[in-house]
Amino acid sequence: MLRKTALPGLALGLFTLASAANAAPLPSSALHVAITSQRVMNAVTVSDNGRVFVSFPYWGGGSEPGPTVAELDKTGTPHAFPDAAWNDQKQTAGFADHFVRVNAIRIGPDGYLWIVDSGDANVGGKPNPPDGAPAKLVAFDLASGKPVHTIILKQGTTPHSYVDDLRFHNDTLILTDAGDPALILVDMKTGQQRRVLQHAKSTTDERPMYAEGKLLISNGSPARVHADQLEVSPDGSVLYFQPSSGPMYKISTADLENPGLSDAELNEKVSLFYNTPTTGGTVIDGQGNLYVSDVNKLRLLKITPDGKESVLIADKRLVWADAMWIDSTGKLWVPAVQLNRTASFQADGVSRVRQPVTIYTLDLHLAPQHRF
Fold first, then answer.
1. CA end-to-end span of the chain, whole Å?
2. Which of 10, 244, 314, 323 could cross-link to 299 by cystine, CB 3.0-4.6 Å?
3. Angstrom distance (rounded) from CA 275 to CA 243
4. Are the CB atoms for 87 and 98 separated by under 8 Å?
5. CA 130 – CA 85 distance, rounded (Å)
6. Residue 368 lies in a domain
7. Could you give the CA distance from residue 7 to residue 9 in angstroms, rounded to a whole number?
8. What are phi and psi of 149, to 5 degrees?
């Protein structure tokens, strides 16, 4: 069972302290336990009216069965969203009306709950099965629980794709491909999908990843997670993106969405933004400040739009801080998902996740993120 804890507010002085580019890190007492679970949760998203949704990745394991996507009630109890049928992992027929491998969830600018389902995908191994479930996006109306959009991503993927995460810019959906490095653009008006920056330096994991001081190993080799984190600036003009190993790059959305540019020409428009460390998750606030998890040193970094870094908080509990969220009250939600401790990254295949898995919050009164 998940448990949700009421959180006391922090003094505004703490927010002022954290906002300065070179301020001292917040104390550990600023990090509050919000949700705990005996299963690994890899993402959290909160609607403007306070509804809390979490996702449980297929790689997470855990001692309790449960849904892939859940809404938490006021007691912290998870309920399958939108219903049990969508979360029935035993389904074998079809793929469009149930979840296969959910990798990301987030409330979109339209107020819908958007879900990235990677389908039957392998990361860094054999090609994805040709007859397996393809990656898809599904958007649910929160009032009715009914799917509003279902977008099958066959056109924008390859046999080695692992569709990872999603951001929005006007009528364009921007996704990262962590398996076969690229960004995937989906035009909401036409339904067209195209891959850009394929195997570019900016989308390809070219350096070792470290977590808790150890080289991250998968299947006996250094792990590689290609295009992963991405954020759109508050004014919609810039996309920040990176492989999980870092560094972070940026490109104007006008260039990114220009179909007249070849991949070579588009690559010339990309510039290095910041030399980020191995990263689990990011988020951007309404002032354009990026929050980046450093999974090696167990801390959160704040990077201003002009590239100045400060340590927001460092705490040994922040083990692989993943997909963060800033809610409408300016609270920062931080899932500590312990990805590096899961069985997939252990030489003996035995999970070393320490339960419970926890989602924390920092009551920072941040300017809420803009969602185009």
1. 34
2. 314
3. 11
4. yes
5. 25
6. no
7. 6
8. -130, 135
Would you tell me how many other CB atoms lie within 10 Å of the CB of residue 16?
11
Q: Which residues pair with 362 in a beta bridge?
A: 332
Query: In this structure, are strands 32-37 and 357-363 parallel, antiparallel, or unpaired?
Result: antiparallel
Q: Checking DSSP bridges between strand 214-215 and strand 102-107, what pairing results, if any?
A: unpaired
CATH number of 200's domain: 2.120.10.30
Which pLDDT tens digit goes with each residue over 177-205?
999 999 999 999 998 999 999 999 999 99
Summarize pLDDT for 310-359 with one digit per residue, the tens: 999 999 999 999 999 999 999 999 999 999 999 889 888 899 999 999 99
CB within 8 Å of 313: residues ≥ 6 apart: 18, 25, 26, 27, 28, 30, 31, 299, 300, 362
Name which of 195, 275, 196 is nearest 242 in CA terms: 275
Instruction: Return the residue matching tokens 């009914």.
Output: 146
| Domain membership of residue 335 as a residue range | 3-363
SS3 state of residue 12: helix
Beta bridge partners of 147: 140
Q: 372 in a domain, yes or no?
A: no
Structure tokens at 129: 């099965």
- In the chain, the number of structural domains is 1
Residue 371 domain-assigned (yes or no): no
Q: Looking up tokens 């920056």, which residue turns up?
A: 197
Tell me the one-letter amino acid at 229: Q
Peptide bond into 234 cis (omega under 30): no
User: 58 near 25, Cβ under 8 Å?
Assistant: no
Pseudo-torsion of CA 14, 18, 23, 25, nearest 10°?
80
- The answer to whether the beta carbons of residues 138 and 131 sit under 8 Å apart is no
Whether pLDDT at 66 is above 50? yes
- Cβ atoms of residues 177 and 227 within 8 Å: yes
Q: How far lies 168's CA from each of 35, 165, 237, 287, in Å? A: 27, 11, 12, 17
What is d(CA 39, CA 359) in angstroms, rounded to the nearest whole number? 12
Is 146 strand, coil or helix?
coil
CA angle in degrees (0–180, nearest 5) for 321-71-1: 75
Residue 297 corresponds to which amino acid? K
Please answer whether residues 187 and 165 qualify as being in contact, where contact means their C-beta atoms are separated by less than 8 angstroms. Answer: no
Q: Please report whether residue 370 resides in a domain.
A: no
pLDDT classification of 164: cutoffs 50, 70, 90: very high
